[in-house]
Write a structure and sequence with these properties.
The complex is a heterodimer of chains A (221) and B (235). Chain A is an all-alpha fold and 221 residues long. Helices cover 84% and strands 0% of the residues of chain A. Chain A is built from eight helices and no strands. Chain B is built from eight helices and ten strands. Classes of the chains: A mainly alpha (221), B alpha/beta (235).
């Protein structure tokens, strides 16, 4: 019970700080919209091209916007020294990780809620449906799981803005490929398509477990 | 005679192959206050960070309230309060929200009542609904002190707590340390001010090059004498 209360308290604190500072959400949202607009003008979007291009454009926007937010997750607490004060508390380090992960997922979800309708209009695809929800959820969880862990590693270094993408991109490739292909399959159904959702579930379960176990060693000095 | 509350034996710590602590031995009885003196880079902050379970030592043992720091970290965290020379608060949260957040982290019962009492003690009761970012440095340091006392720690660690405090704030700090000692609370603080060290503490401990070079009870001791001993120890 204490564990969940601590997760809730840290999450509440992060959300409240973000709502008041508006440092992360606005930059993430603007970045995602900018990527979608540029891609919309850059690519030839004839009907036969859409299924190949649109899902990629959508997930590029989500991934890059997410990284903007993920980089700030722990770095801002380290910069202000408040992470030390959090580490002084008798809190299970898994509770800190879980709260940061949920916070990141929420920040990314807000961006996705704003970007998805814009994407549907710009690319003229009837993509917003119940089937898209699990894809976006699993993709976001995969990106946030890896990103939260590695933002803790990167935050302890001088070159965190450089290091975070280098560490995160190679690891999230499977889940991003799964998300792109599963999103594409919603637009054009194809035979012999691998079970992308299953792959994403497996990815999320494995990396969530590993990250929960590793976070304590990453965050402790 | 009171029992030792803090026992440090042969404590060593190295950063990037540079030894910071080279075998520290310190004993502090319950209800006593110790001032830790030493030039910059002598390991005072590192020592406090180890005691606060923020950094792990490489060698040696530390026992706080009879608990081993290597084995009972979470229980020790409940016993220890820490104030750094930077307030390290959440600027976007209000004064009371900061305290209530840490109250939940330490599972403090009646956290709100405790927070209000502490804010009155540190002279911030009227600013409880203001954001921390709008407070002055000295006010933030007072709030940092209130935060450290929120869970009623048995051992209070203060790393240059006088930094940024005005005369009134320093008087308040002195009063809090005295009150704690009367209630059986143990305090360890670092300072560069010899007068303050003698005035506030029961014992003085000087570090130089990561070693304890001078340890003395302050009864009958004067700041001038401490300064001379300090210079002597540095030779």
């Amino acid at each position: 019970m204490t564990f969940l209360l601590q997760v809730q308290a840290i999450l509440w604190k992060d959300i409240r700080c973000e709502l008041r500072s508006r440092q992360t959400w606005i930059s993430m949202g603007l970045f995602a919209l900018l990527v979608l607009v540029i891609f919309n003008f850059a690519f030839d979007l004839r009907v036969d091209n859409k299924a190949a291009i649109a899902p990629g454009a959508l997930w590029v926007a989500f991934v890059f916007a997410s990284l903007l937010g993920l980089g700030r997750t722990i770095a801002s607490e380290r910069e202000k020294g408040s992470m030390d004060r959090l580490m002084l508390c008798p809190v299970d380090r898994k509770a800190i990780y879980l709260a940061k992960l949920l916070g990141n997922m929420l920040f990314i979800a807000v961006v996705e809620v704003v970007a998805l309708p814009v994407f549907a209009v710009l690319f003229n695809v009837p993509l917003i449906s119940g089937e898209l929800l699990p894809i976006v959820l699993l993709g976001t969880l995969g990106i946030a799981t890896i990103g939260t862990l590695f933002s803790a590693i990167a935050a302890a270094t001088q070159a965190r803005e450089l290091l975070l993408p280098i560490l995160v991109f190679p690891l999230i490739v499977p889940v991003v490929i799964g998300a792109v292909r599963a999103t594409g399959a919603l637009m054009v159904s194809s035979v012999n398509e691998p079970p992308w959702l299953g792959l994403m579930v497996a990815f999320d379960v494995i990396f969530l477990s590993v990250s929960m176990l590793m976070f304590e060693y990453v965050i402790e000095e | 005679m009171s029992a030792p509350y803090l026992e440090i034996n042969g404590l060593k710590k190295t950063y990037s192959l540079k030894p910071i602590l080279r075998g520290i031995d310190v004993v502090l009885d319950q209800g006593k206050c110790m001032a830790l003196l030493g030039a910059n880079g002598t390991g005072k902050t590192t020592l406090l960070r180890i005691l606060a379970c923020l950094t792990k030592p490489e060698a040696g043992t530390v026992r706080i309230g009879g608990l081993d720091i290597g084995q009972e970290v979470q229980r020790i965290r409940l016993l220890v309060g820490f104030v750094g020379h930077q307030p390290n608060l959440y600027d976007e949260l209000t004064v009371i929200e900061n305290l209530l957040f840490f109250g939940r982290m330490y599972a403090v019962k009646k956290a709100y009542e405790q927070a209000v009492t502490l804010l009155e003690q540190v002279g911030l009761a009227r600013r409880s609904s203001e954001r921390v970012g709008t407070l002055s440095r000295g006010q933030q340091q007072r709030l940092s002190l209130a935060r450290a006392l929120l869970h009623s720690p048995r051992l209070l660690l203060l790393d240059e707590p006088d930094a940024g405090l005005d005369d009134e704030g320093i008087e308040l700090l002195e009063e809090l340390i005295r009150e704690r000692a009367e209630q059986g609370g143990t305090t360890l603080f670092t300072t560069h001010n010899f007068e303050r060290a003698v005035k506030f503490s029961d014992q003085i401990c000087m570090l130089s090059g990561g070693r304890v070079v001078y340890q003395q009870v302050t009864t009958g001791l004067e700041a001038g004498g401490v300064r001379l001993a300090y210079l002597e120890a540095l030779r």
